[in-house]
Amino acid sequence: MGPQVLKRFYSCTIESILTGCITAWYGNCSSSDRKTLQRVVCTAQYITGARLPAIQDLYIRRCQRKALKIVKWPFTSSKYGNGMQMACQHRALCMFVFTLCSSSLSLENSEDSAKVREVSKRLYAQLKESEKRHKEERDRMQFSRRLDEQSKHLQWVEGEAGERGQKVEELQRLLGGMELEGAVLRGKIATSEAELLQLRAAKEGVTEELEKELAVLKEKIHHLDDMLKSQQRKVRHMIEQLQNSRTVIQERERVIRDLEEKVAFLEAEVKMRAKEVVIEIKS
């Protein structure tokens, strides 16, 4: 296989394994570990016969790429402002640079570590400034939001006050109407009381007359009761007489029927004897 194919194979397999998450762990590696990793790269370079990038160069390139990605973070949501975007970017950059600073303590090149510290300090100052601006903007937005809420509440209170004023006016009108109705009702009550007194006075006279008539009627009723009782006694006596006469009539009818039977028997006997006499005379 040619050098280009071997180089591509190295980049796809070995280099991807060696540089996996290199920005997180390479800064804390010791110099012996870094030399060991570089020997692996040199061996691969000898085998492939092509020039391969060093581990240190890959580490620096990955760090730069990571920083550029952090700077280019998109904040398209409407709830984030420019201050929020800058604060997030500077915070991420500072965290990334602080990681580099902590890892650069073990670097052999002190100038690189000093540069990294300066960059981290500058970024930290920018972070503080952006956080301050973000805080001011947030306070201003909260104040404006609170002001809007208070204005809305004031409008609502004014509307409620207007409605309550209308209700008070309606209640006053109702009270005025009720007072007029009360005066009319009091007049009606006075006239009704006067009429009631008149009716009571008239009723007293009528009551006396009615009591007299009632006494007379009671006497008449008592007299009529006596007459009714006497008539009832007479009727009972007549009924008894009628029943007695009926029994007498029935007895007489029975006697008459007996006599009629005897008469019929005698007539029949007379006829028989007459026939016998006639027969004897003829003979």
Could you describe the 3D structure shown?
The chain has 283 residues and is mainly alpha-helical. The chain has a domain of 71 residues. Helices cover 89% and strands 0% of the residues. The protein has six helices and no strands. Helix 1 packs antiparallel against helix 3. The N and C termini lie far apart (198 Å).
Helix and strand composition category: mainly alpha
Order of helices and strands: HHHHHH
For the sheet with most strands, the description reads: none
| Total number of strands | 0
What oligomeric state do the depicted chains represent? single chain
The outline comes out as elongated
Poorly predicted regions are 75-83, 101-109
- What is the mean predicted local confidence, pLDDT? 76
Q: Could you tell me how far the N terminus lies from the C terminus, measured between alpha carbons in angstroms?
A: 198 Å
What share of the residues does DSSP label as strand, in percent? Answer: under 5%
Whole-angstrom Rg = 71 Å
Keywords: Coiled coil
Coiled coil: 120-147, 189-276
InterPro entries: Tuftelin_GRINL1A/MYZAP/CCD68 (IPR051375)
Organism: Oncorhynchus mykiss
